[in-house]
Task: structure prediction
Amino acid sequence: MAFAQRLAIIAGGVGGIGSATGKLLHSHGAKIALLYAPFEAARVQPTIQSTYGPDSGTQAYECDITSPTSVSAAFAAIAKAQIAFPSILINTAGYVNLTPLESTPPEDSLKHYMINLYGPTLTSQAFARLYLAAAQQAKLQGAAVPGGRIVSLASQAAFVALHAHGAYCASKAGLIGLTKCMASEWGPLGITANTVSPGPVWTELGKKAWSDRGVREAYQAAVRSIVPSSPDFEGRVD
Ligand SMILES: NC(=O)c1ccc[n+]([C@@H]2O[C@H](COP(=O)([O-])OP(=O)(O)OC[C@H]3O[C@@H](n4cnc5c(N)ncnc54)[C@H](OP(=O)(O)O)[C@@H]3O)[C@@H](O)[C@H]2O)c1
Result:
């Protein structure tokens, strides 16, 4: 199995893309640690059961990714549990709320930046420290060190101007900038960092933002202005 003896930590692990990603990694042998926000607690066990099945060994840790204290506590608990080598971090926690730019409330701009940019900053820093400590220990023991991998969910919205998406576009463009610096600074230490930029996917977040046909068509037209071959997602709408 490609990821046997590796731990994948999934921030936003109870969400739609987080669950699908975790399921795939688990099917390739990875052990899974889900990070969930305090307000998602009721969804944790049902998601673990439906996504991973009984006896999967999947662990869940309460973690508000916008709180340094909460992130530190969650990563300390993961380190203490010693489930497997902590080699993968998937940043999928996210937030979107469409409002015209001139009337976006300050607190809503901040919420985008906190969840979509500051949160991945904190989780990635905590992961890098955890990975580097584990790698050092493995080297001392003469054991093989798996590569570190950080994958963060950005968005096609990072690359185009979308009406009423100002805070979301900015947060995702910022995440790409952050990831380039993580790759540059941590690559030589053994951690690769990449973003993935989907178009609309019909999760709760996707439905909230892009259920309206006009909004969807404008989104698709904007993306096609830079990627003419961008696939038609119309057939995948509920
Ligand atoms: N779906 C799309 O069309 C699409 C397209 C491009 C990029 N993306 C990006 O892909 C990522 C995953 O999105 P998704 O579609 O899977 O959405 P989702 O199902 O809503 O999952 C996002 C998860 O993040 C959680 N979360 C929110 N605030 C958090 C916090 N402070 N701490 C920890 N967790 C928090 C959410 O909890 P609550 O549900 O309780 O808020 C939710 O479980 C996001 O970054 C999103 O921006 C999605």
